[in-house]
Specification:
Layout (H helix, E strand, L loop, with lengths): L10 E4 L7 H4 L5 E6 L3 H4 L2 H11 L3 E5 L8 H13 L4 E6 L1 H13 L7 H4 L11 E5 L11 E6 L4 E6 L7 E4 L9 H19 L7 H22 L5 H14 L13 H13 L3 H15 L5 H10 L8 H18 L15 H11 L13 H10 L1
Parallel strand pairs: 1-8, 2-3, 2-4, 4-5, 5-8
Antiparallel strand pairs: 6-7
The chain binds 5,6-dihydroxy-NADP and zinc ion.
């Protein structure tokens, strides 16, 4: 096991009816920027619950609507301008990963004197971020309990990830009932995103970290177990509750401590979204099959462990077990409505070349847990996918 420092201060407030506790969690006298997306929270009653909780606590607030999926820098800077003009000092993000990620940048940028884009491209660290609270409505990204944020910029066509401890939420309210209004497509996306988050921290090489392995495997196995009920209509509370907690556990840092990680699928996936607009989770299902073709030898030991412990494959030659584990994973993605492999999506023929060039140009290479994937490796992954 490698050395690590693990500090996750996010207070998780979980379960039905918990939005009412917002008034207790936001410091008295705060002036709140209540930020959300395109309006799903108005249709499902979450907006009304938040307004009631803020009003009851006597908190002053201003609303900012319209943070889009793959949140745009240009939109977020409008929220920053509102917060500055109205002297708002607490950011409340209500929505999915895009709203939460966007609000992390807003919280960091309000008091930032320089060019806020420098925060995203990691040329500057935020100085003093405003405190952030979250009401999560889409289990997927883990953003509610981590320090990461992924921001898109319309002007340059970039989609970049950054992170800073100062933007970890002070609290996150996770009410599974807020997910009842999700379209099936977003539930399936969330299941795949959480599953791949675990794979990126697990499917590398053995690191004598059996606890991290078993934690990762239990999140994977739980996702497989609950997926049919989580996809069912009418929504099932227990399945949605378990999905929500799995997605948070998949990327709150715990399972990845002291072990090698490989974010290749995500790095390529972000480029694919930037180029084509394909949903984040769908890019992961598109790319991952290519990663396991190209990195099969590098990942052999963990692929066999994954085959045995997640998919119950203990018999037959090694090659067959690995093949079967990949097939079962692809079928799992498809079972929640997310096509596996690039062939399931409409993408321009030059995508492998274009993505390899974009990553190389930005200095985003090499990828892989051993740093052995250069531009040619990225191209081969996309061709195999
Ligand atoms: O905008 P509204 O109207 O709210 O609609 C959203 C949006 O259209 C809708 N939605 C959310 N909750 C809903 C709902 N619709 C009905 N009922 C509800 N309860 O769902 C749509 C997608 O929302 P979005 O927030 O974009 O989805 P997701 O949570 O999957 O977030 C994706 C973003 O997170 C980034 C991705 O790259 C992408 O930009 N990620 C962030 C990570 C992190 N911070 O750690 C890690 C991830 O790997 C990922 O990269
Ligand atoms: Zn993801």
């Amino acid at each position: 096991m490698e050395n690590f420092v693990f500090h996750n201060p996010v207070k998780v407030i979980f379960g039905k009816g918990q939005i009412a506790s917002l008034g207790r969690e936001i410091p008295k006298g705060s002036r709140v920027l209540f930020a959300y997306g395109g309006g799903s929270i108005k249709a499902n009653g979450v907006h009304a619950q938040v307004v009631a909780a803020l009003t009851q606590a006597g908190l002053a607030f201003k609303e900012f609507a319209g943070i889009e999926p793959n949140p745009r820098y240009e939109t977020l800077m409008k929220a920053v301008a509102l917060a500055r003009a109205e002297k708002l000092d607490f950011v409340l993000a209500v929505g999915g990963g895009s709203v939460v990620d966007g609000c992390k940048l807003v919280a960091a940028a309000i008091d930032f004197a320089g060019d806020s884009w420098d925060i995203v491209r990691r040329r500057a660290a935020p100085t003093a971020a405003k405190p952030l609270g979250v009401v999560l409505t889409l289990p997927a990204t883990g953003s509610e309990m981590n320090l990461f944020s992924v921001i898109s910029r319309e002007e340059t066509g970039e989609k970049l990830g950054w992170g800073h401890p100062s933007v970890m939420p002070r609290f996150s309210v996770l009410d599974p009932e807020t997910t009842y209004s999700l379209p099936a497509r977003q539930v399936g996306n969330g299941i795949v995103d959480a599953f791949v988050h675990v794979l990126e921290q697990y499917l590398t090489y053995p690191a004598e970290a059996p606890l991290q392995d078993r934690l990762a495997e239990s999140v994977l196995a739980t996702l497989v177990e609950i997926a049919p009920a989580a996809m069912a209509t009418p929504p099932d509370y227990q399945a949605r509750a378990n999905l929500m907690w799995c997605a948070t556990m998949a990327l709150n840092g715990l399972i990845g401590q002291g072990v090698p990680q490989d974010w290749t699928t995500h790095m390529i996936g972000h480029e694919l979204t930037a180029l084509t607009g394909i949903d984040h989770a769908r890019t992961l299902a598109a790319v991952w099959p290519g990663v396991v073709v190209v990195q099969r030898e590098a990942k052999r030991a963990k692929l066999l462990q994954f085959a045995e412990r997640v998919w119950g494959l203990t018999e037959g030659p090694e090659e067959e077990r690995i093949d079967q584990a990949v097939i079962m994973t692809r079928r799992f993605f498809e079972s929640v409505g997310v096509p596996a492999g690039l062939g399931g999506y409409e993408v321009p023929a030059d995508v492998p070349e274009a993505i390899a060039a974009r990553l190389a140009q930005r200095g985003g290479l090499p990828l892989g847990e051993r740093g052995d994937l250069d531009a040619d490796g990225v191209r081969r992954i996309l061709e195999a996918a």
